[in-house]
Design goal:
Chains A, B: This is cAMP-activated global transcriptional regulator CRP. Chains A, B: One of its GO terms (cellular component) is cytosol. Chains A, B: Pfam families: cNMP_binding, HTH_Crp_2. Chains A, B: One of its GO terms (molecular function) is DNA-binding transcription factor activity. The structure is a homodimer. By secondary structure, chain A is an alpha+beta fold. The first copy, chain A, folds into two domains: 139 residues, Sandwich (Jelly Rolls); 63 residues, Arc Repressor Mutant, subunit A, CATH 1.10.10. Chain A is 44% helix and 23% strand. The first copy, chain A, has a four-stranded antiparallel sheet. The first copy, chain A, has a four-stranded antiparallel sheet with strand order 2-7-4-5. In chain A, strands 9-11-10 form a three-stranded antiparallel sheet. Chain A starts with a helix and ends with a helix. Chains A and B meet through helix 3 and helix 5 of A and helix 3 and helix 5 of B. The first copy, chain A, binds a DNA duplex through helix 8.
DNA sequence: TCCAAAGTGTGACCGTGGTAACATTTTATT
DNA sequence: AATAAAATGTTACCACGGTCACACTTTGGA
């Protein structure tokens, strides 16, 4: 992907809706950005690392994860093409990454230096409003995550997950979007604990499952046990 | 507190640093804001309530809390004079309060309608940048909270709390900033569980405590057990 | 000053879920 | 097709912390 290529991506991005291709080309000088490729599981930003850039995902999937003192993983959210990371850290009173950012697949990231972001904010109001929306939406993601993990039991996490996926996939047969290991990380629990609880729910007649799908059997019980 | 009074508060607020008193008076027309007083424990915004205003705390303390399905309380953060709430919801793609907002003491709130906020953003860049900082800082508060509650054990929560308070208060004798009941809510746990763990820590020689203070005895053990 | 209400200490009981260890299956690599 | 590596299933053990129940203390109003 050369200069022209990612320029095409940018010009179709909502943040840059107000910019003509010429204007974009004019603003984007080489010292203002870096395009980098990351392998799967490669760290993009360490926890407590200083933030100097806003990152735009050109391709691939990127996970933001919280690691506790014992190394347990809690996946906060997964971002993809067109999503933006680190915008909040450019404007906040503390500019260190509170969590680790790593590539979940081969990923190409456009690192936009903060000077560029500030300049773009100066130049264009639509960009700035768009950035406020991006940052504001991050607060909602984090709030939702707090909501999700402060539901105590694993069963409640699973039910919540199944409700959501069943609605998205419009089916009682939910195809798992990731491995069970990754699903456990999303809940911030042990893989074996997830496995155990799935078994219990099967015994209770709520679900059926195999390696790649979970079938919702008794949606009534599923609903009333929330 | 009449019009003049809160105008004085506004003009000394960093968000309005660029505004002359005249300019402020010009912008602030009655249909743009409401000043309201809330009693202790009175709800300011319910969860899932639609957000129409950005709220500026003129006096008192305001808690943002997450309630789970069984009514357990997790206090996310406590805000006070000069702090701003709801700014993120004005710019985000979803504008319902994800958590409950209530007065922790008698509180006076200035509700600024979103039209006014948008107008202020149009008028003044400093205001807009300031607002971005406010919203960005909210993401950090939420990230920190996720970090705090995903530390599994109650003992770790207590140690973390004591480290922080000991540093702030510059003393090994930590005066509790709130009741033990409220402290338990801050950790999102049962009050009796907090009480039990404090006892265990006293037995282990880590701390001493009474109703209003906790004395750090063995800071070494405190540090190594993190 | 009295009394109700709220906060606090304490204990018994037991379910949820972490830990560790191993077997089994699936996936990727040569 | 063969082998290593990763993911998954399964089990026994037990600690942490939720629940409930009650006594005690402090606080704030009447």
């Amino acid at each position: 992907m050369n200069h022209q290529d990612f320029m095409a991506v940018l010009s179709s991005h909502s943040l840059f809706a107000d910019f003509s291709n010429q204007a974009l080309n004019q603003v984007f000088r080489a010292h203002y950005y870096e395009k980098r490729e990351y392998q799967k599981d490669q760290v993009i930003h360490f926890q407590n690392e200083c933030c100097r850039t806003m990152d735009l995902i050109l391709s691939g999937r990127v996970a933001v994860q919280n690691l506790d003192s014992e190394g347990n993983v809690l996946t906060i959210s997964i971002f993809q093409d067109g999503d933006v990371l680190g915008a909040n850290l450019i404007f906040s009173s503390r500019n260190t990454y509170p969590m680790i950012v790593l590539a979940q697949s081969l990923a190409v990231i456009l690192h936009l230096h903060q000077e560029l972001i500030l300049e773009l904010c100066q130049m264009n109001r639509t960009f700035m409003i768009g950035l406020m929306k991006v940052i504001s939406d991050k607060t909602l993601i984090l709030s939702d995550k707090i909501n999700a993990i402060s539901m105590k039991t694993i069963r409640q996490c699973i039910i919540d997950f199944l409700r959501y996926e069943s609605r998205i996939q419009k089916s009682q047969i939910v195809r798992l979007p990731s491995s069970k290991k990754e699903l456990a990380q999303r809940f911030g629990i042990q893989r074996s604990s997830l496995s155990r609880e799935l078994n219990k729910m099967r015994q209770d007649g709520l679900i059926d499952f195999d390696a790649k799908t979970i079938t919702i059997r008794n949606i009534n019980n599923l609903n009333e046990s929330s």
